[in-house]
Amino acid sequence: MRRDEGTITLWVLGLTMMVLALGGIGLDLWRVLDVRRELGLLADSAAIAGASAIDEGALRATGEILL
Questions:
Q1: What is the distance between the alpha carbons of residues 14 and 8, in angstroms, rounded to a whole number?
Q2: CB atoms within 10 A of CB 6
Q3: What is the rounded CA–CA span in Å between residue 53 and residue 56?
Q4: What gap in Å lies between CA 44 and CA 60, rounded to an integer?
Q5: Alpha-carbon gap, residue 66 to 50, rounded angstroms
Q6: Spatial separation of the C-alpha atoms in residues 37 and 46, rounded to whole Å
Q7: Per-residue pLDDT tens for 43-64?
Q8: Can you say whether the dihedral through the CA atoms of 60, 61, 65, 67 is positive or negative?
Q9: Does the global pTM surpass 0.85?
Q10: pLDDT tens for residues 2-47?
C-alpha cells in the first residue's frame, strides 16, 4: 500500500499559488488598462485645449494657425 499522506495538502498549496499568481496578473492587466484610459483622456484634453486656443479670426482671414 502506498503512503499518500500529504498529497492533498500539496495539491491545495499548488492550486492556491496558481490562483494567487493569476490574480496578480489580472490586477496588473487592469492597472495597464486604467493607465491607458487615463493617457487617452489626457491626450484628448490636450487636443481640445490646443484647438480652443487657435485664433479663429486669423485662421479665417489668412489661413494661418495662430495661438
A1: 10
A2: 9
A3: 9
A4: 24
A5: 11
A6: 14
A7: 999 899 888 888 888 878 888 8
A8: negative
A9: no
A10: 676 778 889 999 999 999 999 999 999 999 999 999 999 999 998 9
Find where cell 496578480 sits.
24
- What count of residues does the chain have? 67
Chain Cα centroid distance, residue 11: 34
DSSP letters, 16-61, are HHHHHHHHHHHHHHHHHHHHHHHHHHHHHHHHHHHHHTS-HHHHHH
Spatial distance between the Cα atoms of 25 and 23, rounded to a whole number of angstroms: 5
